[in-house]
Amino acid sequence: MGLRTGQQYVEGIRHRQHASIYVMGKRVTDVTTNLFLKPSVLAFKATFDAAFEEDTRDLARVYSPIVGEEVNRFNSLHTSPQDLVAKVKLLRKLSHKTGTCFQRCVGWDALNTLYIVTRRMADKGKKIYYDNFIKYVADVQKKDLALAGAMTDVKGVRTLRPSEQPNPDAYVRVVEERDDGIIVRGAKANITGIAVVDEVVVMPTRAMSENDAAYAISFAIPLDSPGVKIVVGRQLNDARRLEGGEVDGLPYMFNHEGLLILDDVFVPWERVFLYKEWKEAGVLVEIFSSYHRQGYAGCKSGLGDVIIGATHNLAKQIGVVDKSHVQEKLTEMVFLNETMYSAGLAASWEGRKLVDGPGGFWVNPMYANVTKHLVTRFPYEIAKLSHDIAGGLLGTAPSEFDLKNPEIKALIEKYLQGVPEFTAETRLRMIRLLENTSLSVAYLVESVHGAGSPQAQRISMQRLYDVDAAEKIAKFLAGMGNRPVDFRVEPHKKSEAEKT
Fold first, then answer.
1. Which part of the chain is the HpaB/PvcC/4-BUDH N-terminal domain (predicted)?
2. pLDDT per residue as tens digits for the range 144-199
């Protein structure tokens, strides 16, 4: 059966023969025991365990018509609006179990994107990529592999196309064709969970011109491939993972981002899903972006739940939870959180099938972009309100090691205590949870830049909204024209993916 336990996943990534993984300048031989990466391993592990745990089992597994059995939902293809809704709900629920980004979503969105793109190409007569992809999906589902999706190139000079770059490797490209495959070179930046996955799915990051054909490439490789190098990035408070404590680093599941360097890596032809099909690159990015923007409704509202709960508890601990201004702020946090979630559900229920076969259901692109644009704003507002209620100690609290020091333990317990029924330790635990969650890359920085910066969503919304149709409605109501005959309820234009 295509379902692995969390422990089976951990054992599967324990040893690397070829890939070079670096953390803070040092090469890592075992990602499962490295103190910096172990929190990421545990967060990934939760996505596997969810398929066996009572409260997430039904959300985390789904029947796959490709392999004829249940698979982990993170490796599934969307067959209905219900699947898209289940995605958002699963992401919210898993945030409650991890308190962080669990890193498996980008690979999932890559699979669903490539299904649509390769099927479109097959319908136009170029079937090889679809055949390659379906075989790959079957293998992923049967083995229940952990995937990273790699889209963002390092980009070099932002105003220049890939083929115009002074550094020709600023975008991932093919540098050699062979009878048995291709050699690729380049780098992908800010890749979520990259050091602790089984495989990586690479996609183009932008629309291409004919001159960029060598860069219009999508493929999958095992992470442990010769020529793969990974440099893990730093994050806020990341050194706390190395301290050996049990409080200061809460929650002790965490995510990481890394630079993926492809130093002349060989890719067999059967693992290539797009090559020199430059006209498909822009559509691929549009499809992927909308999928990924829709998903943010789940994970960010789930982390919002954690922050709301921690804030409510801290208000109890200092005796202000029943004050009207505190209740008003908590209510505002709930409103902002549920607004993000509701937009993601709308993007899901309004999804549509773009291509035939065992997949191909896509989100509503307008509502997906609205979802992500809300996410670029509301987590910062939620975090600010939580900090307001929690108090300045959120940023100045003593270390857990001070609390454990017998010379000052009693004094800290005396002076950090609020309401007598709570101890200083319970206050410190909740402060650290709120600090590390509400000030994290996963909740703040990623909310702005993940799946595209705010301007990317604004451009998409502008393209999708039919201002001329809205103007015709206004003119009719103002007595300046005839009533428009338009069968659309929403004045939305078709996306590029829907046009073709």
1. 5-274
2. 999 999 999 999 999 999 999 999 999 999 999 999 999 999 999 999 999 999 99
Catalytic residue chosen out of the listed positions 32, 98, 101, 152: 101
Residues forming a β-bridge with 147? 199
Identify whether 453 is part of a domain: yes
Query: What is the CATH number for 76?
Result: 2.40.110.10
Are 458 and 472 within one domain? no
Same domain, 346 and 382: yes
Q: Same structural domain for residues 178 and 35?
A: yes
In a domain, 192, yes or no: yes
Q: Which of 252, 277, 280, 292 is catalytic?
A: 292
| 446 has catalytic annotation | yes
List residues bridging with 186 in a β-sheet.
262
Is 371 a catalytic site residue? no
Q: Which of 262, 277, 292 is the last residue of a domain?
A: 277
Check: CB of residue 290 under 8 Å from CB of residue 365. yes
- The pLDDT tens digits for 30-72 are 999 999 999 999 999 999 999 999 999 999 999 999 999 999 9
Query: Does 54 participate in catalysis according to the annotation?
Result: no
449 is catalytic: no
HSE-CB for 500 with a 13 A CA cutoff:
16
- Cα–Cα distances (Å) from 434 to 255, 312, 394, 430, in that order, read 16, 11, 8, 6
Is 101 among the catalytic positions? yes
- Is 177 catalytic? The answer is no
User: Whole-angstrom Cα distance, residue 500 to residue 120?
Assistant: 8
Which range marks the domain in which residue 410 is found?
284-462
Distance separating alpha carbons of residues 500 and 495, to the nearest angstrom: 9
pTM of the model: 0.96
Q: Is the pLDDT of residue 436 over 80?
A: yes
